[in-house]
Amino acid sequence: MIEPLLKMRGVKIEGRSDDKWNPIINGVNLTLNRGEVLGLIGESGAGKSTLGLAAMGYTRDGVRISGGSVEFDGIDLLTASAAVKRDLLGKRIAYVAQSAAASFNPAHRLIDQHVEAPMQHGLMDRSESEEDGMDLYRKLRLPNPDEIGFRYPHQVSGGQLQRAMTAMAMSCRPDLIIFDEPTTALDVTTQIEVLSAIRDIVTRFRTAAIYITHDLAVVAQMSDRIKVLLKGDEVETSDTRTMLSAPTEEYTKSLWAVRSFLRPAKPAVVTGTVPQLSIKNVDAAYGDTPVLHDVSFDMHAGRTVAVVGESGSGKSTTARCITGLLPPTAGQILLEGEELPASYKKRSKDQLRQIQMIYQMADTALNPRMSIGQIIGRPVQFYLGLTGAAKRKRVDQLLNQIELEPSEYFNRLPSELSGGQKQRIGIARALAAEPKFIICDEVTSALDQLVAEGILRLLADLQDDLGLSYMFITHDLATVRAIADEVVVMKDGRVVEQGPKAEMFTPPHHAYTDLLLSSVPEMDPDWLTNVLKERGVDNIGDAAVDKM
Amino acid sequence: MDTVLKIILQRLALGIVTLLIVSVVIFIAVNMLPGDFAQAILGQGATEESVAAIRRDLGLDQPLVTRYFGWLAGVVQGDFGSSFASANAASFSGTTSGTTTVAQQIAPRFGNTMFLAAVTAAFAVPLAVGLGILAALYRNSVFDRATNIFTLTSISSPEFFLAYVLILFLAVLNPIFPSLSNIYDGMAFGERLNKSMLPALVLTLVVTAHMMRMTRAAIINLLASPYIEMARLKGMSPMRVIVKHALPNALAPIINVVALNLAYLITGVVVVEVVFVYPGIGQLFVDSVKTRDIPVVQACCMIFAAAYILLNLTADIMSILSNPRLRHPK
């Protein structure tokens, strides 16, 4: 029998917080054969990245491997000296990080960073390595492969950077690459390009890989086997097809079932009803750069309008226009048929109260120095003028609405809450103003699927109880399918298609909507292969060139 | 490059405006000093008439605004006026040929100060940045702590104390360098350097701590960045990670603190000059304040302000240039 490339036995990892060591990984075994791709999935906090880094014999500051063994091709990485490990890293084991934009050094050109490992490890000289880099760029279908390496990271788009980073990991033709959520930060249309490029090159060079992600549909495309982690423990491991068709463990089944939440579409709006909020021919610009062009759509009371599109398509800018943070250069915003002043500074308190916002990053949207009671209490006092016991009563009521026990959470600080709980506080703060209309800006994209689903359910219940209307900004079409009544598709600052959900999800679509819909990964392990076949692989390369 | 050029021109214009405001403040402040040159030179027994005569000679009887614009017009043309003291001496001897202009008086002193600052910077900047890098590399080690303690001690000690300690060890007990820095025009470079060595060493001790600590902090601040982790995961040595990956991104704060310290070397070295009898601009400045020699005081102030503004401007421009986003726009 051939020895496996990587053997991890009973690996225990601890992280330091509050002056003591807390377990992150509680004795996980992992075996990887040469040329095999293992998918590692789990929610955030499951220890996926930590385990992935441990496979390289590396821990971040404040983290230590407290037990077990990590053996790479017969070398024990836990007892090896720093020099021995340095010789392996980059050369035989490489890493592809989640955010390529943050993981490329902003001070150096891509090619300089690419050639560093082959040169420092003494494998190639500069010109050989540059040649090879351009060749890899070509294989990864980057546009202008001979020229793109001479740019700085900020001059290259996110999807291209992610491929350049894969090329960099390949520079020494390693035996093993750890991919740590390489497509999580990308739009679906870009993600599909990166996924196919990664899969191609890994197959071409028969590189073994650990592919870390929280997205089941993605892992289904990329891996031969899947390992599911939950809070530092292995739940189960099996080959991809078995895992998808017949998961054995309850937790795995629950992960698979997550996408089942679906709100029935509401009956169509009676024609002639005055929309709650109406955007009419809005143009907007940042400085001299126009970002919105003639955007118009209506949102009716008690309904959810999902605004979808890639990053940079103008979704959040539209929200900024509605709230008055960015006064439009042309067009009108109407609230129940009445025109709102363009700037929030000129709007009345009551107009301000009607439109509230929930943000993507609950972490940064809550003041870390204020308690939950203060955070929710402020809009209660500001908009409704309640103080003292009345205010406290209202805050308690709001906390009950978001399903958090008031007595337990009133005095806590945001840092003492989980991501999902923080987002609930964000919702309560918006509700505190008793608005009619709430803008939800990517409110679930920073959350795990199970938690996100809880938030979606809560928003749906609140809509039924309070008759709220939502503008739901998202790039995740699964969320759209779950919660939307109407859909608006945006691209490059324009509305390309709009209509009821059912219409949007049945052909024929606008070409862009079609691209967007067909780019959403599905659980079928053959999905990527089929989509690529349908589109023709060359088209994807062309699409990348178009984006330049 | 257009954006960079535009930013530089903007900063330059702003620098000139700042200098203009400073000139007003200086002029007003100097004129608020109690007493004037006439009283200072004639002493308490002077008659009203003689005081008034000297004032008239020097133009001190003119209103403040007239004097300011007269002075400013001169400064713009590079003429800082004549020193009161020398003008007075000349009028006593009945000649006008002995009158020295302020520029003539300041120029050699300013040259000396620049020389001392340059020598000090040549020691201090590489030393501070080098120590900062090493301290970041071996952070929390004995070396790191020892460097910290040493530099902090030297910055916390009064300059004259450091000066006398160095004189004791390097001039008295082991006569390596001269304890008097009485340099003069036309001195050979080697001798000049030798004579300036002790004051330069004292100043090095004074400015190193600040720059070294900033270098260390700026580098350590970046060590948690994903791109540093990436460099480590590519198997790069700790030294390479810091010098090649962290340092280029830490340049802006380091450049700023270096500029601030260089400005200090030009404007704030009076004590060291006095201890070593070094004929720099600081001594001249203090002497002129004592005698109310207003043109000299004003010129010195303007030079100090210009040095500060120019160095900070240079630092700003260099920080901007160290940012690849501005050097290479999309």
Model description:
- The complex is a heterodimer of chains A (548) and B (330).
- Chain A is α/β, with parallel strands linked by helices and 548 residues long.
- Chain A has 3 domains: 7-92 and 176-251 and 518-547, P-loop containing nucleotide triphosphate hydrolases (Rossmann fold), CATH 3.40.50; 106-173; 277-506, 3-Layer(aba) Sandwich (Rossmann fold).
- In chain A, the strands form 4 sheets. In chain A, strands 6-7-8-3-9-10 form a 6-stranded mixed β-sheet, sandwiched between helices.
- In chain A, α4 (110-120) packs parallel to α6.
- Chain A is globular and about 70 Å long.
- Chain A starts with 5 loop residues before the first strand and ends with a helix.
- Chain B has a domain at 118-290: MetI-like (MetI-like fold, Orthogonal Bundle).
- With 330 residues, chain B is mainly alpha-helical.
- Chain B is built from 15 helices and no strands.
- Chain B starts with a helix and ends with a helix.
- In chain B, α6 packs parallel to α14 and α8 (159-173) packs across α9.
- Chain B has helices at residues 2-32, 37-42, 48-58, 64-76, 84-93, 102-137, 142-156, 159-173, 189-222, 226-233, 238-267, 270-276, 281-290, 294-321, 324-327.
- The mean pLDDT of chain B is 85.
- Chain A binds chain B through residues 56, 58, 60-61, 85-91, 94-95, 97, 99, 102-108, 116-117, 120-121, 151-152, 154-155, 168, and chain B through 224-227, 229-237, 240, 245, 248-249, 324-325, 328, 330.
- Chain A: InterPro entries: AAA+_ATPase, ABC_Ni/Peptide_Import, ABC_transporter-like_ATP-bd, ABC_transporter-like_CS, Oligopep_ABC_C, P-loop_NTPase.
- Chain A: Belongs to the ABC transporter superfamily.
- Chain A: GO terms for molecular function: ATP binding; ATP hydrolysis activity.
